[in-house]
Amino acid sequence: MKNVYWLHCGGCDGDSVSLLNLDKPNLVDIFVDLEINPLYHPSLSIKSHKEQHELLESLQDGTIPLDILVVEGNILKGPASTGMFDLKFGVPKKNILVALSKRAQYIIALGTCASFGGIGVGSETQATGIQFTRKEKGGLLGADYVSGGGLPVINLPGCPCHPEIFTSILAMLNSGIEIELDEYNRPLAWYGMMVHQGCTRNEYHEYRVEENDFGEKGCLFFHLGCHGPLTGGSCNKLLWSKRSSKPRVGVPCFGCNNPDFPQEYPFFDTKNIEGIPIALPNGISRAQYMAYKGMAAAAAPLRLKKRQTRI
Amino acid sequence: MAKISCSFPVNRVEGDLTLQIDFENDTVTQARSVGTLYRGFEKIMRGRGALDGLVITPRICGICSLSHLAAASAALDNLCKTTPPDNALRIKNITGMMEMIQSDIRQSVLMFMPDFVNQAYSSNPLYIEAVKRYSPLRGARCVSAVKNTATIVEIIAILGGQWPHTSFMVPGGVTNIPTIHDIVQCRHLIVRCMKSYEEQILGCSVERFNNISTKQELDEWLSSSQEHSESDMGFLIRFGRSIGLDTIGNSYGNFLSYGAFDIPSDSDVSPRHGREKLIRSGYAEGTNVTEFDQSYIAEAISHSWFNGYEGAKHPFDGMTEPEASGEDGKKYSWVKAPRYNDKPVETGPLAQMVINGIPLFTELIKTEGSSALTRQMARLARPAKLFPKALAWIDEMAKLLGSSQFYIPYGEIKNGRGMGLTDAARGALGHWIIVEDKTIMKYQIITPTAWNGSPRDDAGMPGAWEKALEGIRVADTDNPIEIGHIIRSFDPCLVCAVHRLDSGKKIFIC
């Protein structure tokens, strides 16, 4: 049995709610199969406040082993670095997290807020991620932190994190399978591909048939602010509820797996020079990209230009 | 006479909530509702792009994300003077109803009913059955609810890309152009989910349950078949009555709904009283319903940790300036105190039932008041009202798909103001936006939990659930289960009460 303890910090609970969307196998099946012992989850447990308090003390003094600590939501250091914006039992949650980090075998940052700070970084709440503040290493626990099991905080960004990524990581930790992480401590197995891959609008993208407004079939990258080609993630491979994704239904990818989500400039808009986005897919030369896109647009078949091909 | 004060953290609500309770002997004399988190969304919105509410505000709440999107897009429609085409309304309505239904079932079965497993009831004759059914993540009904609600969410994923946190509703309509495959799949899933709801939650068809119009008919329904009494609804009523949930939890009896789900102009799903929404808006004192007037909405901050004004202000004139000082003991919450025509109100499924004149709940309000049991029954009964309409709209969409529009260009966002009012799963939700030069100058949000979990106002009037706790007897302050029932019957969503911040006072845990 692996003990798992959930700590909800300054978030929306969306990552937990998303776990309930798992199907075949669902969350209950997975906990049973992996012999996960959920010690406490704020939305599901029936422990009284007295029992919760005793559990937290036993975890902090090591009487009960803490195999996996799951943290959801950002860490609020404000106001004036006191942490008083977010308390549990009258104690700043940031202090509880520091105490538990000394006992945890592994820490999972579930969602972008816990990973990188997400919504609220730079505001009066002094929001941060556990081991990163946006792209900068450090966060609450510091750049050098490693948990008892020898890993840094495992970042599973996404707003919310895709639930299958979380349960796969649980399974890997359970069986001692090595987890390969990228520079932002995200597992490469899911964040080492682009969100763009698998989008049903890709044929439109290929021939530079780009939309200026909502409600059409073409690509959203050039004008509507889609971050699909710029964002590591597997949304269009795993799909949500195994059914679809935002770009497939005409909603641009907002790059929510990225450390700098949410962007500071307006959504639904692509910054561009002469109609070509400023931010290009990683590793592409601007001159070559312009030549390639010019030729692609010239080669575009009429069926795409007329938006006849379905997506 | 022993007077003590205790603070109870409440779990199994969305987010964190602490209640400061004053007791005389074992009876609650005063309750104060204190959030323990401040996220500052309204300030984060200032200076952002005009459309950014469509991306940022759904992320206020993981359980009613789509309702925030609906309110944000309605506020922009109001500002741009655009009306979404009929099939866009159908998509918005179907997805919105599915969000409500998953929330109603998950909250009831995974959050409210697990209280029946509490040690305090170990000698109750129904206890062993309760443990078998509602133990967290193990009870048979909890497992069914996890399974069935995941299927409901698939419908939103097909039409809106994912759930939670999508942004497919925009001013002028929706971004999606569903195919006939999408529509047929949604129909399969709606039928399947409705059947599961009928089998597990009601133990009968939705028509049969919707036909119950009096308390006597409810009792007849309960005793007339094993399927009825062993359903989740049946068990809620039986266990709830056995522990007196029908006698506690009364608040003021003031109810508010902004209404929800605009009826498409070409739809056969017609409003019964010439109204424009499937769930009508209104305000009720007891069962006396009056027309809703948004100009009556105002927020007071006399007991909240904000500064900048006295009295109460309409959200267009309101301000959100946190004030982390003032230790005079008067201010205790970072939830503002919204009032309707100066009155504290409750909002949610029960308010909708009363305002829409649903006979069973109208009678229950008249005879028992707004008890914790009636409030929770209204929540669990709401899907029975919504499923048939969702099915009718998906069928209409299948027929009209070839010729239909889903989006009408809104042009440019001009300077101005807009409001988006809807009912989320937990009740009245409003967004108010002021835009200048394509930039958000002001964004104010009043969530359902701000209404239900409001602190006191300038007149010292407690909020709805603060009031509902007064006079309650608590047998064991180490295990204040009575308080848990009442608070959870309001289905609190504290991640949503976007203003909140802890008072910073020393908290004494009993």
DSSP strand content of chain B: 15-25%
Low-confidence stretches of chain B: 498-510
Total of DSSP H or I helical runs spanning 4+ residues of chain A: 11
CATH superfamily of the largest domain in chain A: NADH:ubiquinone oxidoreductase-like, 20kDa subunit
The major β-sheet of chain A equals: 5 strands, parallel
Q: What would you call the shape of chain A?
A: elongated
Fraction in helix of chain A: 25-40%
CATH superfamily of chain B: Cytochrome-c3 Hydrogenase, chain B
- Give the end-to-end Cα distance of chain B, rounded to a whole number of Å: 18 Å
Principal-axes shape call of chain B = globular
SSE string of chain A, helices as H and strands as E: EHHEHEEEEHEHEEEEHHHHEEHH
Would you give an account of this structure?
The complex is a heterodimer of chains A (311) and B (510). Chain A has 2 domains: 2-188, Rossmann fold, CATH 3.40.50; 202-305, Cytochrome-c3 hydrogenase, C-terminal domain (Cytochrome-c3 Hydrogenase, Chain A, domain 2, Irregular), CATH 4.10.480. In chain A, 27% of the residues lie in helices and 13% in strands. Chain A has 11 helices and 13 strands. Chain A has helices spanning 14-19, 27-33, 49-60, 93-101, 112-116, 163-175, 188-191, 202-206, 235-238, 286-299, 302-305, and strands spanning 2-8, 36-40, 68-72, 75-76, 87-88, 91-92, 106-110, 127-128, 132-133, 136-137, 154-156, 272-273, 276-277. By secondary structure, chain B is of the alpha+beta class. In chain B, 39% of the residues lie in helices and 17% in strands. Chain B is built from 17 helices and 17 strands. A 4-stranded mixed beta sheet of chain B has the order 10-9-6-14. A 3-stranded antiparallel beta sheet of chain B has the order 1-2-3. Chain B has a 3-stranded antiparallel beta sheet with strand order 12-11-13, with no helix packed on it. Chains A and B meet through helix 1, helix 2, helix 3 and strand 5 of A and strand 1, helix 1, helix 2, helix 4 and helix 6 of B.
